[in-house]
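Researcher: Here's my situation. A collaborator sent me these components and asked whether they could plausibly form a single complex. I don't have experimental data yet, so a predicted model of the whole assembly would be a useful starting point for our discussion.
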Amino acid sequence: MNAATPLASSDLLAIYDLMVQSRILEEQLIKMFKQGHGFFWIGGPGEEAFNVPLGKLIKKGQGLDYDFLHLHYRSNAVLLAMGMDPVDPIRQMRNTATDTHSGGRNFCGHLSKPEWNLTPITSPIEVQYVTAIGTGIAQRDHKTDAITIVTGGDAGTAEGDFASCLVWSTRPGQELPILIIVTNNQGGISTSYATQHAERHIADRAKAFGMKTNVIDGNDVMESYAAIAEAMHYVRTERKPFLLEANVSRLYGHSSASGANFQAEEDPIARFRECLIQQNVLDVTSIKEIEEKHTQAIHALISQVLTERMPDPASIFDYTYWQQKGRVM
Amino acid sequence: MNAATPLASSDLLAIYDLMVQSRILEEQLIKMFKQGHGFFWIGGPGEEAFNVPLGKLIKKGQGLDYDFLHLHYRSNAVLLAMGMDPVDPIRQMRNTATDTHSGGRNFCGHLSKPEWNLTPITSPIEVQYVTAIGTGIAQRDHKTDAITIVTGGDAGTAEGDFASCLVWSTRPGQELPILIIVTNNQGGISTSYATQHAERHIADRAKAFGMKTNVIDGNDVMESYAAIAEAMHYVRTERKPFLLEANVSRLYGHSSASGANFQAEEDPIARFRECLIQQNVLDVTSIKEIEEKHTQAIHALISQVLTERMPDPASIFDYTYWQQKGRVM
Amino acid sequence: MATYAQAVRMALHYAETHLGLSHVFGQDVGAPLGGVFTATQGLKTAWNTPLDERGIIGAAIGLAMAGKRCVAEIQFCDYIFNTIDLLKLAGNTCWSSNGGWCLPMTVMTPVGSGIRGSIYHSHSFDAMMTHIPGWKIVMPSNPKEAYGLMLACLQDQNPTMYLLPKALIYGKGDEAIPGEPSLDQEGSKQLREMIDKPVDPRLAAQWEPNWPTGLTDYTVPIGQGRIVREGADITVVSYGRTLPLCVKAAHRLAEQGIEAEVIDLRTLWPYDWELIATSILKTHAVLYVNEDTEVTNFGEHLIRRTVDELFYDLLAKPRLLAGEFIPGIGLAHTLEQASVPQLETIEKAISEVVAGKL
Amino acid sequence: MATYAQAVRMALHYAETHLGLSHVFGQDVGAPLGGVFTATQGLKTAWNTPLDERGIIGAAIGLAMAGKRCVAEIQFCDYIFNTIDLLKLAGNTCWSSNGGWCLPMTVMTPVGSGIRGSIYHSHSFDAMMTHIPGWKIVMPSNPKEAYGLMLACLQDQNPTMYLLPKALIYGKGDEAIPGEPSLDQEGSKQLREMIDKPVDPRLAAQWEPNWPTGLTDYTVPIGQGRIVREGADITVVSYGRTLPLCVKAAHRLAEQGIEAEVIDLRTLWPYDWELIATSILKTHAVLYVNEDTEVTNFGEHLIRRTVDELFYDLLAKPRLLAGEFIPGIGLAHTLEQASVPQLETIEKAISEVVAGKL
Ligand SMILES: Cc1ncc(C[n+]2csc(CCOP(=O)(O)OP(=O)(O)O)c2C)c(N)n1
Ligand SMILES: Cc1ncc(C[n+]2csc(CCOP(=O)(O)OP(=O)(O)O)c2C)c(N)n1
Ligand SMILES: [Mg+2]
Ligand SMILES: [Mg+2]
């Protein structure tokens, strides 16, 4: 798949399949939380129409010749689209020792995968916008079409780090190949965008720096796919930053802290499903099959993870330093 | 004097007089540094054409009905125009116990005067842009035409605090009466603006927030005076923020750390002098007289200050807390 | 019987109606949420800020400069660390201006472990905060004193830091806040109905708090600790989440004949050295307990002071029990338990110090 | 005979030509200035950043993630305090990812008093920094070790903090850096001509450094302290600006028959406890000296460790001499002198501890 050619039916189906897998996974993670199999849930249901195409378009691998990812905590779908095993978020939810992303240390949604240049997703809002500067510099200096991708929410753009990323990525003659993404769900935890932000579009803030920008309907798969592909193409070839703002839904509220109950916002999966039905790519039977396939698979994974061991208390000291185990002093 | 009426000859002369006083004071402060009568010099020679009009237009006093000032370290001329005794910066330069702004504790140029709502000028770049939010909020809530005025340099706008000020002062329905000023001298200590900033005008960054802006030649007294008056009028009456960017000179380099030697940049005093000569407001005799008057006065003040006492070592503990003296624990 | 969160809320209500508190602000502090721990629900001066901690602290400084009383909340202390320069600035403004400016402002932030908050909702802040001159720092460990110390902060002329141990936030105390409905179950229910915002969004939208009318200016003076339990064998000094654990451990050890005197420091700075010293002169042994990481920890300052002033009065080496020196508190139950002092480790440490007495 | 600034510069040059150092950056670090203390003049990998400390630390973290070796400078440690969250992040990244990521990056920043830097150019950073897990922290006190410790940092796989005592920066040592021109006056002059950028702007514009060709990989291992002066009466542990003062005080006291053993800690974390403990077991008395403010100070950690492990070996109470607990260092000479340890106060403290020995 690339930007120029329209998506084939099989591509559309693959995207749909991933969106459904991701949604079912998130809903099951919420259920795990509600059943007491985990302490906290945060994730991305409502962002699938944007996140799956993003994952599909990432140049995946390790090192400077692959895209560097500085994502935020609603990115499970991005990683699933890249091929992550759905057992990973389940393990993180259950904080088992088998969690390969954080060893049971971090909240679910806080993934880390060096093999794919996925830098650790971390809770403090917006610090990813300054760490992205560094991988951006390294990739500016390296002959490659790989880029740095950073994502964050709308409310977090009020942190100075977002501004730092705009300043540093546009230094004259030293522009950085960074795709800056803002997923705008119109608010922070409980605070609505409209009460705190005078910017009509967050993306407008980049214009003063001469940065290319786009604002899209992130609930629309086709629009998202095309816009991401276009923005990536620009960054990959021009080696300059691009700010892409995507309006998205937040279907289960902020996190388990706010209840994680379903909210009546536009559902990008329902919308895409309608569209695929109309295009005769999907029918009622296959819809059911896809859902059942993923539900069963995820149920099986949860059952498995529930039997896995918890981290060893003595392990708290491990990896304070590189390759170090045990107490330091 | 106000925005609408053109400046009378006497006003122009008063401004010129203050500009010269300020320049002579700064040059004498530099001399004090070079003679070992102080440890560090930083100040505003080159910014007089902007700073004196600014000082003249400030609504001076204490409390919410007067302008709150969050200035940076090149603001001696602003304060002189407000009526500050020139002995104050001299005492701060010499770090005597008699320094009413910091008791010999802070660098010259780091003034503080509660009676005029001058909040302490402090070294860390750009923190004034976030403290200004607070006085702005207080003045938004208060029925007054008084405003908050914050100034900073061009390089410092790369700090996130500058962006914070843009975000907070434009919250919909909660706009703050802040006059945001950037004095652009095209660089930081040694780093030129052009190498670090893609913004054609720093002021453009405010546009995304719907803020009114203006970019002016801060070396031109008339233009500065009119632009400040206009911006202030807007903020005072509309109770909304305004970003004013003034291009200014830096005539003695960054500070004593970079030598404090004269640099060949446009001299706003020379320019204004020419203009006043052409308008027959000034002649060669009065030019000399003004210079001599101030030179003598400042020499006398320096001689006086050199006899004043140094702070008592035991005073280091005083005022860690409000009205507290002596060691705390 | 008020919870800690309710106590803070009532103190803020009292202050906004009687003490000139004019702004309570932070992320999600105003309607609809009233704070992630509900501590600011229903307050008429509470409002939501942009997601920008530096703006929040900056605004607090500016409001104080303008003579306005405020409480600025940082949602979790885990997110305060990009504002340390501003906290230092607030702490040095009076001093830098040689007494010209004072900054009566209060910053409130939840600290510590105990809610399975993982790496970024479990931090402590007492070590770094006590290293910043110019502040007064409190950390109440029960609802009544949470009320009284908030009022103390709001009447001080200096920057005050109000650390709120999140593990205790929905817990109740056993002493009544003057003016709250009765201390029993019924009183708790009544208070909940009066001042807790309903969870149901439809009810919440209409809701108005019904504040208890008898609230008073009950104040716990800054700088005074409190002996929570008397004992002759060892002095145990703590605050926040670990304080009730120390008390519990003391009760358990009493069964074994060890009588621990437990001091709730309540104010971390300026702290009540007289109370500590008097107690140590009686017990000749001391254990300091807190949950911040153990290197360059405030408890180490207290040990230094102890050694400096009471070296020859000690019959056992003074000890600190604190959090392990690791970069975070892991999410898994096993990890959190192993990372910071728990009832068992406190009990063990007390016994060990007592056993080591000469 | 290299100055400290020249030593840093030569180490960075060696690293950019031999150890893969690819980015040296910060405010005014590149041409034309080469750093406010000239420590980065003439380096081919040095460049200027925007005036944004958070961007600087963020960039260093990202470069390390991308496998690039860098040195990021914060112009004065006084301006690092808005990045503490990022320093914590750098320190927890390996741990949070359960060993998945490592961050080999070096942050360099001038610290301390001694240049009449007033409130914002005199800060110390050892207290707060040692409270942040996951870092290694060094603070060399002479040019040779400034060179050797920089090379150690640049070969470590972890975040390293290089604290540079600004009072010493134009000072010379008495041991040669392998490869520098001879140790005498002539050598100094030669080195200056080779690697100091001319002050005259016309000459500076054309200038190219002429690096000594014999520079080596001389490395001071992280974690090793050094006995700078032997003595049997007391152990004095210090680092940075106060270290040479401790040595001087020891020499002066020797005339009065007091023999102090002076240890340069060199690495603050992980520190050389074995060296300290061995010395204390010999002297039975210890004074820790640093100039950070004295509450929740790293020296208090060292005292705690001493009390924990060597309580019964001490013949005098262990003591800390540090900066006064005030919000800043005042500009006036009188104020700076009174705020942080000076030769006289160090000498006095050593005598007092020794006098207090049982
Ligand atoms: C620095 C920081 N401050 C506060 C928080 C607490 N917090 C977690 S998510 C959140 C809201 C984020 O909103 P937004 O940036 O729009 O992202 P969204 O969650 O809506 O995707 C807040 C305030 C945090 N994690 N980090
Ligand atoms: C936070 C911070 N970082 C670095 C410095 C050191 N410093 C002092 S002035 C300066 C340059 C400021 O440039 P600009 O903002 O353009 O103001 P100007 O001095 O040109 O008026 C720097 C880097 C500082 N004072 N504060
Ligand atoms: Mg959002
Ligand atoms: Mg400038």
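Model: Some features of this prediction you could bring to your collaborator: Strands of chain A lie at 68-70, 148-153, 178-184, 212-217, 242-247. Residues 9-307 of chain A form a domain with the Rossmann fold fold (CATH 3.40.50.970).
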